[in-house]
Structures
1.
Amino acid sequence: MSNQAPEEVFKSIISHAKEYGFVFQSSEIYDGMSAVYDYGQNGAELKKNIRDYWWRSMVQMNENIVGIDSAIFMHPTIWKASGHVDAFNDPLIDNKDSKKRYRADVLIEDHIAKIEGKIEKEVEKAAKRFENFDEKMFRSTNPRVQENQKKIDDINARFKDALEKNDLAEVKQIIVDLEIVCPISGSRNWTDVRQFNLMFSTQIGSVTDESNTIYLRPETAQGIFVNFLNVQKTGRMKIPFGIAQTGKAFRNEIVARQFIFRMREFEQMEMQFFVKPGTEMDWYNKWKETRMNWHHSLGFPQNMHRFHDHIKLAHYANAACDIEFNFPFGFKELEGIHSRTDFDLSQHEKFSGKKLQYFDPEDNESFVPYVVETSIGLDRMFLAILSQSYKEEKLEDGSDRVVLNLPAFLAPIKCAILPLVKKDGLPEKAREIMDVLKYDHLCVYEEKDSIGKRYRRQDAIGTPYCITVDHQTLEDNTVTIRERDSMKQERIAVDKAASIVSEKVDMRAALKKL
Ligand code: GAP
């Protein structure tokens, strides 16, 4: 494992993603666009496989969840009804010296993270010093930890109160009182805090006037709500049931940093689960557990994830939490789970004048269902998987290798077919094997460079298996198959290759853990 600092590891991951065709800066030859990225040949495959895994675990594994694909453009009144026109804002603050713009809440959260860092250092130091260290006891009794914890609690309480009252002057005062400085200028010369709407707008049709303004959707969820009755009726769905969808969403993010963590154009995988009013908290807890299991099913260490309850609930929620992942830059939101009440459907009833109710034949009554939502960013999931899989290894022979030990079913390429040399009929034999395997899996054929270099290239993109065709293959129809993580090589009959690869890359084992 690498001994580099997390920031250095993160930089290595970003350059690895570019060097091996996973992620490129958008419009790079025109100097790029901030917070917009393109996925390359390997990235597009990895992303598709993650999306597939999510889709299968939602739609295929649950009889009461179906999937849709709604349009990005939607009637502008939808965003008025959903509250996004009036309330989908970030509090902004500028530093007058550096002219840099920040999200006020992020400045405060970063300050809190620094105090949390101090606590963790204190705990780590003590854990090294004392045998039979009781961490819980230490946290609740150590005066320095207590003092810092109190600071955090006080800031959180004050910040929550300011947000709830939409008191932007108080948000600025918190920044001033905490003596937060601009990371660029080092000064505390701040403007007032003001709200900034995150939706992108454009014009539909040829006439440019206010009434033609439409928005690029900032979440995929609304496409599900406005189709609720279409799906319920045509699918004869009975409550409780869910509607899933994946697709692009757009937000004019102010703080564009951390690679594909926060993007202006990104993809969401969302599922709205429609339930009977009064049962929503049970379903909320059930979906929290189910979604955490989904993350664990990928086989990464369980301490990489944690729940974080929201201190300020969104305008539509009566309970909400995030599943956070320990990214190279610390624990951050990966997925949101929200109990959205009947807010969205009721609002769409009000604004459209159409009834969006469910008739319950058992109780002989109609009601507006409550909704529990699970919402995960596909790009964030991609980053979580990439950072967890990226390993720099020192091998026994003293050489180095970089390997992506991706769950095999997510790997962009499942199998590389490599003739040992470019002559003696080995390329033809390798092509023959490729022609069999390619119907089941995405395979690559490579004959350039030494076999060692070719193995390293496949390790670096996470290919679970390499099949090498050598002179013996022509004599006895056997090949060597090399496994990515152990680097073990085994001689097998050619006709066994397909089933070995299929077994390894099958998603079933992960789905069965759910
Ligand atoms: N429908 C609810 C909703 O959109 P959210 O917490 O704003 O809730 C859900 O977003 C998820 O979408 C987040 O947990 C995150 O993974 C992803 N996401 C949100 N904004 C993003 C951005 N700017 N770039 C990448 N992913 C983002």
2.
Amino acid sequence: MTRLLSLKTYICILLLMAVGCKGVSQEKEEATVNEEEQTETFQVVKSEEEWHKELTDIQYYVLRKAGTENPGSSDLLNNKMAGTYVCAGCGTALFSSAYKFDSGTGWPSFDREIEGNVAFDVDYKIGYKRTEEHCAVCGGHLGHVFDDGPRETTGQRHCINGAALRFVPSEQ
Ligand code: FE
């Protein structure tokens, strides 16, 4: 009997240790994720007040609050002129007009970014995993990238808020 009890006690202790370890390892994982978020630094850093002053309401909502504009609302959606789409926050060149295609979604879409000027992250905001993209220089939110783009080129669909962009026509 004593032996049986001690075996039960032993098992209980083992279980408690296992649960305890799991708790600790989860805390560690979360801490690592948070640290990674905090380590991304940007060349252009401004206070919320400064961004508010410089940007329109919709630009601020998209770039600084990671909001999404209504589909079909951007003047740049059907723009077919040759030029460069730059960050509305800091002017960094993000997409070339050569990469633009009509995705039919209501948001300006590109099959690739100007390499090095766009940075990527993962978000679960609407319940499933998406690859978020933002300006690599100021951190302004741009949109998301999906893998259902044109197969004849990259297969990527960079679904970008027009409010995050400013169009600079090519010099003729
Ligand atoms: Fe920027």
